Amino acid sequence: MGSMRFNPGHLVATRGVAERMEKDLMFREFCSTSLKRHLNADWGDLDEEDKKQNDKALQSGESRLFSAYIFQDTGEKIWIITEWDRSATTILYPDEY
Question: What is the pLDDT of residues 38-73, one digit of tens each?
């Protein structure tokens, strides 16, 4: 997956995101691109304070990593969350949290 700033652990998607990816190739590509951005510490559509918090968590390894991305075609937002221990990374819709 190219250069990564951290190990994502086990990759999972919630049922809602997984079903959407099965039906829509463009959405699947958006999720893949968003995951690559997340793994390269590009936190997407977050405010500066949240981005700084992620940068600190990346260095300390003591907090989860959180990103948000907006699918321009539909305006849908996804979140990508990597657990604090880097054991798993989940792609989900905000209302599935």
Answer: 999 999 999 999 999 999 999 999 999 999 999 999
Q: Residue 96: is it exposed, middle or buried by C-beta count within 10 angstroms (0-12/13-18/19+)?
A: middle
From the list 6, 64, 61, the residue with the least C-alpha distance to 36 is 6
Amino acid, single-letter form, for residue 97: Y
- C-beta of residue 87 within 8 angstroms of C-beta of residue 10: yes
| Straight-line distance from the first to the last Cα atom of the chain, in angstroms, rounded to the nearest whole number | 26
Q: What is the DSSP string of 2-16?
A: ---SS---EEEE-HH
pTM of the model: 0.94
